[in-house]
Amino acid sequence: MRRRRLLLVLLSASAVFGQGKQKIVRLDGSTISPTQVDATVGRLMKAAKVMGTGIALFNYGKPVYVKAYGFRDTGKKFPLTPDSVMTAASLSKSAFAYTVMQLVQERKLDLDKPIYRYLPKPLPEYPKYADLAGDERYKKITARMLLSHTSGFPNWRRFNEDGKLHIHFEPGTRYAYSGEGIALLQFVVENITHQSLQTLIKERVFQPLAMNRTSMVSEARFQNDIANGYDESGQSLGPEKRTLVDAAGSMQTTLADYARFVSALMQCRGLQPKICAEMLSPQIRIHTKHQFPSLNNEVTNANDSIRLSYGLGIGLYWTPYGKAFFKEGHDPKGWQHYFVAFANGTGLLIMTNSLNGEGMFKYLLEALLHNSYTPIEWEEFTPYDQKPQALLSPRPNNQNKAQASYRVLKTCLEIGG
User: Domain residue spans in the chain?
Assistant: First the structure.
């Protein structure tokens, strides 16, 4: 009976997203068949030791092939499905930015008005932001800066030596990825709207886009099909339980639901053309060698040819096929995701429940999309066959120091990324 129900779910998902024997158009106009997609994903999952993977391919701004592979629970042999709930990690930020841009559209929020002016008292008088007392630069920070990661904040204050929140450079002058910035904007938005983000984003994004298995927190209704996260050695980290609404990374969603969101963004649904164009326009050029650690000053011109930039809640780069926008998601409890969408309507969404997931990204992008333009080194999507072999081997009871150090470093640098 369980097998029959699973088959019905998969058939339903296939019908909704038009899976079949059609050819899928890649970035350069070449095509790939569903059979070739399946073979490629299966081969890479085995090689990279990834437990579960969801793939959504887009043509003309719409999902044309949406399929899940592997397991959501390897112990119980429960398959990952397009409706399996996973932690979205920083894919949450793009959905939040989309919500913010609707407020901009309705003139409830001005991107260039200092955010402290939206609050009933000075920002440092709120306990969470007391660390900013004495630094008047907080008065320069705008929503535009928070969405484009140019506020001067670290990714998270806990990574500072003193554990306090500081402004590390003149706001608006450079890119430095910051979950703190998104958290501050969430605080401001909730003050402006007098609504919790959970209610606001549900009304403005999840319900209109029929994202029926998506929430900013974990919900009991997801238990019938929820995925475990897995570490590098294939050990289960369990399903993640999120109880606090966090615009930077708490979203619980599915492959099918997030594909609906990506499609809506590709088509600018829910946003006026000029507002959508603003969201997907470069706010700052990026010259850092890597995205993390976010305050690293090492620079490079390696990505100048693709004009690597950041928009509002979304990354940008340019190719011979036009502009691309992208977002990644990484959570050390077993989640690694990425999507990229191009001006010609092609795109790819990858969601995995494994800390080995990013090791497949370069090869998936090249094989499924013929996209060789993604700034892989800047993203630090190290291919699986270039990683230390210890990370892909079964973990001994006494974990070696090198592997432990690597995992701590990844956690510190990329949590909420």
Answer: 2-414
Q: How far apart are CA 116 and CA 70, in angstroms?
A: 47
Distances in Å between the Cα of 143 and the Cα atoms of 84, 85, 283 are 33, 30, 12
- Count of beta carbons in the 10 Å neighbourhood of residue 19: 20
pTM of the model as a whole: 0.91
138 touches 167 (CB < 8 A): yes
Q: Are 150 and 172 in contact (CB under 8 A)?
A: yes
CA distance 205 to 210: 8
Average pLDDT for the chain: 91
Instruction: Give the pLDDT confidence of 201-217 residue by residue, as tens digits.
Output: 999 999 999 999 999 99
| Tens of pLDDT, residues 286-309 | 999 999 999 999 999 999 999 999
Choices 3.30.870.10, 3.40.710.10, 2.60.40.420, 3.40.50.300: CATH for 2-414: 3.40.710.10
Is pLDDT of 13 > 80? no
Q: Which residue has the tokens 């890597």?
A: 290
Alpha carbons 54 and 337: distance in angstroms, whole number: 9
Q: Which residues contact 95 (CB under 8 A, 6 or more apart)?
A: 88, 201, 205, 251, 261
Which own/partner contact pairs does 358-361 have at CB distance under 8 Å and 24+ positions apart?
A: 358/330, 358/382, 359/48, 359/50, 359/383, 359/384, 359/385, 359/387, 360/44, 360/45, 360/48, 360/50, 360/53, 360/384
Rg value, the chain, Cα: 21
The CA-atom distances, in angstroms, between 317 and each of 97, 282, 325, 333 are 18, 9, 7, 29
